[in-house]
């Protein structure tokens, strides 16, 4: 039996070991930090058009449109804060130990899955809200025939873009879930 254990130990020690490239891991962390900070900037700038529309056209809106825009803002701002909170781990994280990096990478990927889910569903919600807004504007009588055609074109163009964004967010969510699963398996092996 002792001979068999020695043979197993030799076999175990003969297994190839993949070396960990610390420089690559640190570069991955720096790259992820930059991306998350850029995404935070983009998230914040995405609210600016809504604020501009509210500031510039508030008096032109019907009371129903004003209420609709206020609700949109009341939903958008907490969602912005939530997404910024989800991005905080990678955007502001600093550590020198590899195991800490893997743990924080798993946490950030979990958050990225949540962000992809939110993005995926906000695309069709944004298209729906845009259609509701222009429908209200039409029934309020605020749109001429010329503006109706222009707005239909705008809605269709933006909705087409949102459909593409939905597909990309769905693929990203699935890819991140797979990456998360493999990282968790790797962490369990350690």
Automatic annotation (TrEMBL):
Q: Which organism is it from?
A: Alteromonas profundi
Q: Which residues cross the membrane?
A: 38-55, 67-85, 124-142, 148-169
Keyword terms: Membrane, Transmembrane, Transmembrane helix
Q: What is this protein called?
A: Uncharacterized protein
What's the superkingdom here? Answer: Bacteria
């Amino acid at each position: 039996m002792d001979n068999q254990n020695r043979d197993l130990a030799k076999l175990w020690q003969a297994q190839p070991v993949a070396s960990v490239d610390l420089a690559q891991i640190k570069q991955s962390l720096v790259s992820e930090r930059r991306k998350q900070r850029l995404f935070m900037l983009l998230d914040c700038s995405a609210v600016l058009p809504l604020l501009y529309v509210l500031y510039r056209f508030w008096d032109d809106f019907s009371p129903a449109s004003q209420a609709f825009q206020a609700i949109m803002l009341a939903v958008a701002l907490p969602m912005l804060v939530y997404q910024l909170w989800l991005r905080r781990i990678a955007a502001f994280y600093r550590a020198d130990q590899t195991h800490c990096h893997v743990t924080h990478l798993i946490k950030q990927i979990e958050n990225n899955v949540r962000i992809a889910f939110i993005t995926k569903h906000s695309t069709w919600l944004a298209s729906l809200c845009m259609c509701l807004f222009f429908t209200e504007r039409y029934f309020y009588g605020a749109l001429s025939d010329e503006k109706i055609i222009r707005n239909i074109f705008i809605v269709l163009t933006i909705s087409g873009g949102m459909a593409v964004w939905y597909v990309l967010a769905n693929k990203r969510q699935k890819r991140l879930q797979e990456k998360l699963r493999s990282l968790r398996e790797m962490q369990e092996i350690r």
